[in-house]
């Protein structure tokens, strides 16, 4: 009921002209594209239209074009509009009647009257309307409900999902990606926090070598097991 009322008000207040606004918008777009078309008349309403590197045959009397857009939708294509311009014919005049505001009002012109309250309904001696009989389906019925995509089932039972949580990279610490997709790790570049931790060690031990541990008898030799 409200939808019919809203549609009737649209035609009178918001819509202007004989054509529906969506159809007019498509027609205006085709009119802009018609600037790249060059129509050459052949007689009896037949034209040869050159559109960049392609050419099309248009019959404005039969309302047909080789691109088939005019045939399928009823809205003149860019090639047809270039021919209509040559003949000084307005493109809106060849639109089907179903795209007019008159046909739109005929579709939504009927009023749906509101229904009275249920307590005022007349009781009639008729058969009571019951819901359909439940038919048991074949197979074992499901016992658990269907989970949503963001729900997970852990080994210890249902657990809180990380849906909506921003991930952080373990390698560089930045947000928005993980360690597998980290560009610094793929390029072999140390992240800033690792380079800052490595500077004091390099300064204490130039060359990156650790000092040898000394014993009373001399340096301790490292053993490999």
Rg, alpha carbons: 39 Å
**Which stretches are low in confidence, meaning pLDDT under 50 for 5 or more residues running?**
200-209
Rough shape?
Answer: flat
Helix amount, in percent?
A: 25-40%
| Assembly level | single chain
Q: Which structural class is indicated by helix and strand composition?
A: alpha+beta
Quickly count the helices.
7
The pLDDT mean sits at 81
Strand arrangement in the largest pleated sheet: 1-2-3-4
Let me know the number of strands.
8
Largest sheet: 4 strands, antiparallel
Strand content: 5-15%
Distance between the termini: 88 Å
What is the helix/strand order?
HHEEEEHHHEEHHEE
Outline the structure in words.
With 225 residues, this protein is an alpha+beta fold. Among the domains are: 2-107, no CATH class; 165-198, no CATH class. Helices cover 28% and strands 14% of the residues. It contains seven helices and eight strands. The chain has helices spanning 2-13, 21-33, 69-73, 78-86, 101-107, 183-187, 192-204; strands spanning 37-43, 46-51, 54-59, 64-65, 152-154, 157-159, 214-215, 218-219. Strands 1-2-3-4 form a four-stranded antiparallel sheet. The longest helix is centred in the first third of the chain and has 13 residues, at 21-33. The chain starts with a helix and ends in a 6-residue tail after the last strand. Mean pLDDT is 81; it is low at 200-209.
């Amino acid at each position: 009921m409200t939808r019919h009322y809203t549609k009737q008000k649209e035609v009178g207040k918001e819509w202007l002209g004989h054509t529906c606004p969506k159809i007019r918008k498509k027609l205006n777009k085709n009119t802009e594209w018609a600037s790249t078309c060059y129509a050459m008349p052949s007689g009896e309403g037949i034209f040869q239209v050159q559109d960049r590197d392609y050419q099309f045959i248009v019959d404005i009397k039969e309302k047909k074009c080789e691109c088939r857009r005019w045939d399928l939708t009823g809205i003149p294509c860019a090639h047809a509009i270039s021919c209509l311009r040559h003949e000084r014919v307005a493109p809106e005049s060849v639109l089907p009647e179903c795209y007019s505001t008159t046909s739109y009002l005929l579709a939504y012109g009927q009023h749906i009257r509101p229904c009275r309250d249920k307590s005022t309904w007349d009781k009639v001696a008729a058969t009571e309307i019951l819901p359909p009989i439940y038919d048991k389906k074949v197979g074992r019925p499901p016992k658990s409900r269907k989970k949503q995509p963001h729900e997970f089932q852990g080994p210890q039972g249902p657990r809180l999902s990380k849906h909506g949580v921003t991930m952080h990279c373990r390698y560089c610490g930045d947000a928005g990606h993980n360690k597998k997709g980290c560009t610094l790790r793929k390029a072999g570049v140390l992240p800033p926090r690792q380079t800052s931790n490595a500077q004091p060690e390099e300064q204490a031990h130039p060359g990156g070598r650790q000092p040898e541990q000394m014993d009373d008898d001399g340096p301790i030799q490292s053993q490999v097991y």
